[in-house]
Every structure is written in structure tokens, then in C-alpha cells.
Amino acid sequence: MAEPLIILCPLRSFSSVACGMLGQHPEMYGFPELHLFVADSMQELMLYHEHKGRVKGGPGLLRTLAQLHDGVQTETTIHKAKQWLDERQSWSTKNVFDYLLEQINPKIGIDKTPVTVMKSEFIERAYTMFPKSKFLHLTRHPISAGKSMQEFFQQMSKISVRESSKTLDPARLWLQTHSRIMEFTSTLPVGQSMRLKGEDLLSNPDVYLPQIAEWLGVRTDKEAIEAMKHPETSSYASIGPRGARGGNDPKFLKSPVLRVGQVSEPSLNRALEWALDQGFSTKITKLAKQMGYQ
Q1: Which string of DSSP letters, residue by residue, matches 118-179?
Q2: CA proximity to 236, closest of 66, 85, 39, 69
Q3: In this predicted structure, what is the pLDDT of residue 167?
Q4: Strand pairing of 193-197 and 108-111?
Q5: Taking residues 141-151, what's their average pLDDT?
Q6: CA 155, CA 33: separation in Å to the nearest integer?
Q7: Which has the least CB within 10 A, 98, 110, 200, 260?
């Protein structure tokens, strides 16, 4: 059974489209957000979702089970997936991930759950479960990422941008999560992790998709690369049925087609107008430069 690829990045960092792209490679399979690294047992995971006000198991995991078990995602198959999970609350989350990997074997499974980077213990759990997996650190410019986070928080909270930022500060989130990822990947052997600017991947897929494929040891021929340029063909590239509508970024679910053209990168000299604490600016600029931003 192939070791998974785990994408590490905060939310609003192109992870849905990146996973959708890579998952269309003939030798890979892109999962929606599974959240399996936030807990040790399925019972704990279900409580985690319950506390967040979400459907038990989470929409991504339910959609995955419905698709793998029945080949289609409907209210009926989602209900069956819920029943399957209810009967396996005693399983560990690793048991469930191993089960999913068995269903797609011999393909490489790709996990892209942004929540994984919210705590060091989540990242360490992922590594403990799959110590031979590869980790893709996906980045996005702090200014465009922060603006996107701010809009997302406002939409989700249904309150003003300023009010939502009081508890969800984009600057703090960007800085802390990327620092956490880089601290983790620095401990890995050479070749086990790769850092890639999301802007580069989307602007020049013909350049970077072959590099990722070569790193993972899968096909790099023209047919395989072309398949990855069509994330809209993923089984999870649309809004799901009632009971499991999400599982990926809402914007991606509404418009999953890869857009042709250069993704712009703002100047780091611009003020982080959405940051509550401008003291973060120097630290953010320094880390962004390490990632290749100007």
C-alpha cells in the first residue's frame, strides 16, 4: 500500500485546487478534508465535529466513504456512510485512514486538511501515523492569503470583518501556522518534504506538476500531466448532497476549473491593513522572504 502525501498549509492557501489537480494523476487520489489527524479515535473525532456544530464525521470523510463504497454521493449513500462510521466509533483514526488507502490501492492518497497545521500535536499525529509519508508545504503570499482569510471568516461568522478578526486574526494565523510547518519539515530527512508557492503551481502547472510527480516517483508523461490540469473532474469538485455539502473550499466547489494565467503576488512593502497587530509585519515579511516572496 502506497504511503500518502500530506499537504500542509493554513486555510485559503490553494489546497483544494492543488489536491484536486494532483488527485487526477492516474497514480494518485485526492481526498477532500478528512480531519483524521485531529484525534486518536473515531469517537474523539465525532465529538470534535459535534463541538464545532458539524455533521458527525465531517462532510469530507462522509463524501469519501460514499464515493468509495457506492461510487456516487447522494443523500442515501451519505446516510449509509454515517451508519458505517457509527458502527466503527471504537476504531482509531489511523484504522480509518488505512482503510481508505486500501480502497484506493495502489494509488497514493492525498490529504489536504488545513486544520492539521493548527496545532503541533496534529502534525505530529500525522507523522506518527505515517512516518514514511511525504509532506508538501504549500504557501500563499501573506497579503493575499490574509485578505482571503478575512473574507472567509466574515462569511462564516456573519459579522463584520473587524469583529471576526478579534478572535481570528489572519496575520497571527498565517505566521504561526507556517512557522509551525517549517519547524516540523526542518526535522525531516532530505527529500521527504517539498515547499512550493501556490502561485507558482497555478501560474505554471506545466513546469511544477512534473516536478511534483518526479518527487513522488509517479508518471511524468504528457498524458498524466494533462490529467492533473483538470481538477474539475475530481469526484469532490462540486457541492455535495444534503448532509455533506462541503469537504473542500467553498469557492473551489463553486468554480473548480483551473484558471489559465499568472497569479499575481503583491509587494511585501504593502501594509498588512487587515492585521490587528502591526507588530507582526516584520516577522511576516522575514518569513515570507524565506519562502521566496518579494
Answers
A1: GSHHHHHHHHHH-TT-EEEEEE--HHHHHHHHHHHHHHHHTS-HHHHHTTS-HHHHHHHHHH
A2: 66
A3: 52
A4: unpaired
A5: 88
A6: 19
A7: 260
DSSP structure string for 266-285:
--TTS--TT-S-TTHHHHHH
CA-closest candidate to residue 212, choices 110, 119, 98, 72: 110
Phi/psi region, residue 217 (left: phi>0; alpha: psi -120 to 50; beta: rest), is: left
- Angle at which helices 120-129 and 170-185 pack, to 10 degrees? 30
Q: Read off the pLDDT band of 281 (50, 70, 90).
A: confident
Q: Which three cell numbers stand for residue 168?
A: 481570528
Name the residue ranges covered by the structural domains of the chain: 5-140+191-270
**Torsions phi, psi for 181 (to 5 deg):** -65, -45
**pLDDT for res 166:** 47
At position 62, the amino acid (one-letter code) is L
Is the pLDDT confidence value at 42 over 90? yes
Mapped onto helix, strand or coil, the DSSP state of residue 99 is: helix
Contact status, residue 61 vs residue 31, Cβ threshold 8 Å: no
Query: What pLDDT, in 10s, does the model give residues 200-211?
Result: 999 999 999 999
DSSP 8-class letter at 264: P
We find that the CATH architecture of domain 5-140+191-270 is: 3-Layer(aba) Sandwich (3.40)
**pLDDT attached to residue 54:** 78
